[in-house]
Design a protein that fits this description.
The chain contains 6 helices and 2 strands. With 176 residues, it is an all-alpha fold.
Length: 176
């Protein structure tokens, strides 16, 4: 089977509440490669390394779980009028409400997460003792847990509206 098909089946299995096993993470074997060749610039575009872009993106995420959970409503909205997806008018209405509610809740939480994260980093780098940052770290954890629960609720509500075939279609076409 192709790798993308296996990933799609694993995602579908997870979302359909059937236990799936994930392959063990592989060790990074690229360490040290590219030294002497511009410090690995061959894998960088316009002086910006892909790994830095990924790091920045995950730093801006308000969620505790930054990878592995699908953003189903984003996929739904991307395919909402696709005839092959075959959504009814009632499904479209319900899914749009879920998407609007989820986005507005996350939009309220995300700036608070960013602000706290930046304050903790600034405090730590300026010499503030860890115990003085503890309260901020705890608040950050609560906000990220809240955002993650919003995400999980969104997934759950979306799954209740979609048929299994529609869910599989979404996951099979998520790269579009």
């Amino acid at each position: 089977m192709k790798k993308t098909t296996l990933m799609m089946l694993a995602s579908a299995t997870m979302l359909l509440a059937v236990p799936a096993t994930e392959p063990a993470p592989q060790a990074d074997t690229t360490m040290g490669q590219g030294m002497g060749k511009g410090m690995g610039k061959s894998s960088c575009k316009q002086g910006k390394c892909k790994s830095k872009r990924i790091k920045r993106k995950s730093m801006s995420s308000p969620f505790l779980i930054k990878k592995g959970l699908p953003h189903l409503t984003k996929l739904v909205m991307r395919n909402i009028n696709d005839k092959s997806f075959n959504l009814t008018a009632q499904q479209k209405e319900k899914l749009t409400k879920i998407q609007i509610g989820t986005k507005s809740s996350i939009a309220e939480t995300a700036p608070k997460v960013t602000q706290l994260r930046e304050a903790i980093i600034k405090g730590s780098t300026s010499g503030t003792p860890a115990m003085e940052l503890k309260s901020s770290v705890e608040k950050l954890a609560v906000l990220q847990a809240y955002a993650t629960m919003i995400h999980l609720k969104c997934i759950e509500e979306t799954k209740e509206i979609l048929t299994k075939d529609q869910l599989l279609y979404l996951l099979a076409n998520k790269k579009r």
